Amino acid sequence: MLHQIFINTPRWVWVLLFALLWLGLSQTVSRTASLKRITLLPLAMICLSLYGAVTTFGAETQVLLVWVGADSLALTAVLRQALPEGTRYDAATQRFSLPGSWLPLSLMMGIFMTKYLVGAVSAMQPALVHDASFSLTFAALYGAFAGIFLARAARLWRLTFLQEHCGTPPLAV
């Protein structure tokens, strides 16, 4: 059965997997990035997350509310955490110095695997997509992934604001 799932998976899905692996692995080493770059990845992952929930379960009010609720909870929890040690923003060059992290890769694989699993299960058991506990559980998972991505970017936006407008040293967040 697993073999059938893999061979019936469209090729573009494997291309997407390898692109996400490459992108995630590139973030495991220290690097510099612009504000635009640290904004684009979270926006893409949020869109992929919301797309996964809506295309599978529909734009139902319950699904969207659960997605937004999980997004908000994850966002709030991560915003309370300090930035990783070594995170800096240089206002002169408008670039961040970011330490390497395995978290972005983990989150990308989490969204991808969730979408893949839900797609495989819904192809084998289409009625399950209409089961409230199934759809709301996975909508919450999609929302949590999105909230974590959004919060990670928001912490960097906050660092930018504090340093450029308040003169706060880079680590005082």
Commentary on this structure:
With 173 residues, the chain is mostly helical. It has one domain. The chain has six helices and three strands. Strands 1-3-2 form a three-stranded antiparallel β-sheet. Helix 3 (35-57) runs parallel beside helix 5 (103-124). The longest helix has 34 residues, at 132-165. The model has no long low-confidence stretch (mean pLDDT 90).
Q: What share of the residues does DSSP label as strand, in percent?
A: 5-15%
Radius of gyration: 18 Å
Put simply, the count of helices is: 6
User: How many domains, in number, for the residues?
Assistant: 1
For the biggest sheet, the summary is: 3 strands, antiparallel
Low-confidence stretches: none
- How many strand elements? 3
Mean pLDDT: 90
The secondary-structure class comes to mainly alpha
Bulk shape: globular
Query: In percent, how helical is the residue content?
Result: 55-70%
In the sheet with the most strands, the strands line up as 1-3-2
Brief summary:
With 173 residues, this protein is mainly alpha-helical. It is 69% helix and 6% strand.
Draw up the topology in text:
Elements: H1 2-7, H2 11-26, E1 31-34, H3 35-57, H4 61-79, E2 88-90, E3 95-98, H5 103-124, H6 132-165
Antiparallel strand pairs: 1-3, 2-3
Helix pairs in contact: 2-5, 3-5, 3-6, 4-6, 5-6
Task: Pick out its properties.
mainly alpha, three-stranded antiparallel β-sheet
